[in-house]
Amino acid sequence: MNKFFKFPRFSLILKNEAVSGYKTWAVYLLAIVGFYTVASLLVAFINNVNYGSIQRYNKDSINNLFSGFLFVGGYIISSSQFSDINDKFKSSLWISLPGSSLEKYLVGVLISSVGYVLFLILSFTVASLLSIVITKPIFGTSVAVFNLFTMAGGIKNYPVGIIIVGVYIFTQPLFLVGSIVFRKGAFIKTVLVSSVLQTTMSIVFALLSYIIVKIGITDNWDIRILESITKYLESVTPATEFIVGFRLLCIIGIPVALFFNVVGYLKLTEKEVKGGI
């Protein structure tokens, strides 16, 4: 195992990857802070203008922008994580970087998953604090400081943000695979491929359901089972809903993430053997 993974070497590659892209991360941070500040100013201004019966905006709902930045931004970053290996000029430098394929792949996974999530949490915290400094003196109101565990919306009083982050971490390996497989337009092509797969699976499921109903398999089913399931779903408490959602996320998400990460690692080693061709 030491031949393929050495922690000191892995740490150096991780540090190099994080430091080398600091300008990109700094620009992204400024973009988030700017967008957030403008949005908070608009919401504060609208809420302080007397529009009679018009309902006010929930000022804390701005923090829900986190989900959009998480998925869209994260998928785009994941789609470009290993793009150097498909570049004719950069592939040689990337392949010659001291380190095993496993170490390089794990660095890519950490940067685009946990690293990106931590960066986004930090960015939204900074943005919310700055917006408070600006909007509070002017309008007398401000958004709440960003907190992943108390994001507005979702299941009340339960950290739905954890499930949102979990969904991202378990799905983004698909886009890592896309960054290795596709030479150009990895993000768009990965989205198209995943959409085709989802559509195909939906059609297959619909056909199977039709066939099952058509041949009469469901004729002898006890309808009370369905009624019991419906009543149970209606009586589920927010706590149970959160626990069930978290368990389903782990049961489905972990195998899916492992599968695509294994595929991504194998594709990366194949590319390295071929010299990025």
Number of helices: 10
Percentage beta strand: under 5%
Query: Could you spell the SSE succession in H and E letters?
Result: HHHHHHHHHH
Give the helix/strand class. Answer: mainly alpha
Q: Major sheet: size, sense and barrel closure? A: none
Uncertain residue ranges: none
Give helix % range: over 70%
Average pLDDT number: 80
Shape: globular
Q: If you compute it from the alpha carbons, what radius of gyration comes out, rounded to the nearest whole angstrom?
A: 23 Å
| Strand segment count | 0
Separation, N- and C-terminal Cα atoms: 27 Å
Overview of this structure, please?
The structure is a single chain. This protein is 72% helix and 0% strand. By secondary structure, it is mostly helical. The longest helix has 39 residues, at 101-139.
Annotate the secondary structure layout.
Layout: H1 7-20, H2 22-48, H3 65-79, H4 91-96, H5 101-139, H6 160-171, H7 173-181, H8 186-214, H9 223-235, H10 238-273
Helix pairs in contact: 1-5, 2-5, 3-5, 3-6, 3-7, 5-10, 6-10, 7-8, 7-10
